[in-house]
Amino acid sequence: MRRYKIAAIPGDGIGKEVVPAGVSVLNVLTQRCGDFALDFESFDWGSDYWRRHGKMMPDDGLAVLKPFDAIYFGAVGDQNIPDHITLWGLRLKICQGFDQYANVRPTRLMNGVPGPLAKARPGDLDWVIVRENSEGEYAGHGGRAHQGHPEEVGTETAIYTRAGVTRIMRFAFRLAQSRPRKLLTVVTKSNAQRHGMVLWDEIAAEVAKEFPDVTHDKWLVDAVTTRMVLNPKSLDTIVATNLHADILSDLAAALSGSMGIAPTANLNPDRNYPSMFEPIHGSAFDIAGKGIANPIGTFWSGAMMLEHLGERAAAAKLMSAIELVLAKGEVMGRDLGGTASTAEVAQAVCDAIHAANI
Ligand code: GGG
User: Separation of 280 CA from ligand 1 center, angstroms?
Assistant: First the structure.
């Protein structure tokens, strides 16, 4: 029996609801498959931990997580703690500490999910956004001076290194190459940001030579938002900076029907550290505690985790179960126009896993 050690970190808000739902679905799946096991260990790190200890995770948190095969994450964010403290204290600490430099965000218009694009059909919107996950505005460079005085200044310096841009560009070209259309759109803002973004453009052109079978084009981030809405079929794989891709992937999730169904993988492609899988949504404290968060994004993230672990058949089975539930449309979360609770959606996916035909 193959066994994998998985660290479950629900974090804050609806993360505490969707991660347990994800763990229960993955446990049903492993029982159904019968040839591998996921050994979950749960960690109560996040904003409640911060209230007790003054930090989001223990000082040795990364050392504790290092031996795990993967991390299954919920969300960070709390109404009463500044967002930069919760984000940098947990999620970014793990992403950066474990050099999870490739953040992969698939988006698909699924059967049964009503997206806001009137003319788009399933198949017209099938993208993977690759978010550079270690540099840009998230490198942590900048500072505050003369605090509280009229001449106060705050700087946020975006850092782009040749090594960092080259590795994410190679990752994105490889991913595009593995998809049927072999099509990559490189997104920058090199008209206005004339240093770091021009470096991105130059490195994209260099790396493109290593992938002659991949068609690539270069778009400005503002222009690509209109292309996503007006001509979704023209896109396939997209690579962009940490901040640009964060924004584009929220738009992508909304265009595919809801933030609640969108997954993501924070990958350390070299596998020197565990990678982390999470829904792209945040803690959503407006609906936290009500049991109505849509867990589909967390389930899909679980399927990405299984793929990463090499359990492809199980990942495909879980995706088929998710697609079946959505296509039937009988058990839909409120974000998708239904009335189902988190537990009811989880049960529907578990039932689908047990269905004989997947
Ligand atoms: N599950 C994703 C999550 O918790 N995101 C919280 C957040 O504020 N992220 C900001 C970012 O990734 O830039």
Answer: 7
Between the CA of 342 and the centroid of ligand 1 the distance, in Å, is 20
Distance CA 115, CA 85 (A): 34
Check whether 262 has a pLDDT greater than 90: yes
pLDDT per residue as tens digits for the range 84-136:
999 999 999 999 999 999 999 999 999 999 889 988 999 999 999 999 999 99
From ligand 1's centre to the CA of 278, what distance in Å? 10
Specify the ligand 1 atom closest to the Cα of 75.
Answer: 4
SS3 (DSSP) at 41: strand
Which atom, in ligand 1's list, is nearest to the CA of 279? 1
CA triplet 120, 125, 126: central angle to 5 degrees? Answer: 160
Average pLDDT, the chain: 97
pLDDT in the model for residue 358: 64
CB-ligand 1 contact for 246 (6 Å cutoff) = yes
In the block, residue with structure tokens 């988190």? 342
Instruction: Give the Å distance between the CA of 76 and the centre of ligand 1.
Output: 6
Structural domains of the chain ordered from first start:
1-101+262-358 (3.40.718.10), 116-140+156-255 (3.40.718.10)
Distance between the two ends of the chain, CA-based, in angstroms?
Answer: 22
Whether 72 has a pLDDT exceeding 70, the answer reads: yes
- Is the CB–ligand 1 distance for residue 278 below 6 Å? yes
Say yes or no: CB of residue 76 within 6 Å of ligand 1: yes
In angstroms, the CA 2 to CA 347 distance is 26
- In SS3 terms, 115-126 reads as CCCCCCCCCCCE
| Closest CA to ligand 1's atom 4 | 75
